[in-house]
Design a protein that fits this description.
The protein is α+β, with helices and mostly antiparallel strands. It contains 8 helices and 7 strands. Strands 1, 2, 3, 4, 5, 6 and 7 form a 7-stranded mixed β-sheet that branches. Strand 6 and strand 7 form a beta hairpin. The radius of gyration is 24 Å and the shape is globular. The chain binds adenosine-5'-diphosphate.
Length: 267
């Protein structure tokens, strides 16, 4: 540090130092509150399935194990609870990596049409259970080449389609479409005609653990982290994600991707 003899300068420097420290402390306090809240949410989320599993095991030990049919049913339910725990821990792991910026993206050129088709194949059965039709804008039968982390984008598409089914109506429809946006961008839209989201909830959708209907969503499974993960992945790509929804009518989640320049020529 240069030696300052001028008193006024020195006072200014001290004041600035104090101000900086104050800001630093404020930031740390906010972060600490955030951390506590997060831990609170995590233990809450874990508790529910843990108690469920414990409940079934204790009931079995209490005598239910003797009845063959009951035994099978309870073991199946316990296994479902464990499966839920695994999903939650996997999502937590993912979100922690994303938030500390620890997630390495593997950029490559791939056909986004193929990724959408993979998600549809994976979720066909789940959709069929609610008689939901998965449709894909067939104007895009030809490949549309984009540059991104294929595996992560696969996860984004799958999460959005899963939600459209989970919050979709019986006999409903989920439609995925891909459009050119500007020269080197495409936009992928996942549209459903499901329950929709009330206006006041929209701005909170991407928050960790946020759910519109706590009990309803829990019945549907999921960790409440899905959309938060989706947003992180898209933003890690420096892309944008949007949501539009009308309560009772349906929702549309969309995100942008970098298109490989001469992708048009391939079509
Ligand atoms: P969850 O595990 O609860 O599905 P998400 O982070 O994926 O967690 O979604 C957060 C909440 O946003 C959901 O609980 C639901 O209330 C709402 N939501 C997400 N997608 C849709 C959709 N397509 N239609 C209506 N509501 C949705």
């Amino acid at each position: 540090h240069p030696i300052t003899t001028d008193m006024a300068t020195l006072t200014r420097e001290i004041e600035k130092f104090a101000q900086d420290k104050k800001l630093e402390i404020e930031t740390l306090k906010v972060r600490e509150t955030y951390r506590k809240e997060f831990l609170g949410n995590v233990s809450h989320e874990l508790k529910t399935p843990l108690f469920t599993v414990q409940g079934y095991i204790l009931t079995l030990l209490d005598g239910a194990i003797k009845d063959k049919a009951v035994r099978k049913k309870y073991l199946q339910r316990a296994a479902k609870g464990v499966e839920r725990l695994i999903y939650i821990v996997r999502d937590l792991d993912m979100i922690t990596k994303l938030e500390v910026g620890d997630l390495h993206l593997d950029h490559e050129e791939f056909n986004i049409v193929e990724v959408v088709e993979n998600s549809f194949d994976l979720l066909e059965m789940k959709a069929a259970k609610k008689n939901i039709t998965l449709t894909f804008d067939m104007a895009y039968e030809a490949p549309i080449m984009v540059r991104a982390d294929k595996e992560r984008i696969q996860q984004v598409v799958t999460n959005l389609v899963v939600n459209s089914i989970k919050y979709g109506k019986l006999d409903g429809t989920t439609e995925v479409s891909i459009e050119n946006l500007i020269k080197n961008k495409v936009i992928v839209r996942v549209t459903d005609n499901g329950e929709g989201i009330e206006k006041q909830h929209i701005s909170r959708l991407f928050e960790r653990f946020f759910r519109v209907d706590k009990s309803g969503s829990r019945k549907e499974g999921g960790s409440g982290l899905g959309l938060s993960i989706v947003k992180h992945i898209i933003e890690a790509h420096n892309e944008k994600i949007y949501v539009e929804s009308v309560y009772g009518i349906g929702s549309e989640f969309s995100f942008t991707l970098e298109k490989v320049e001469d992708s048009e020529a391939i079509r």
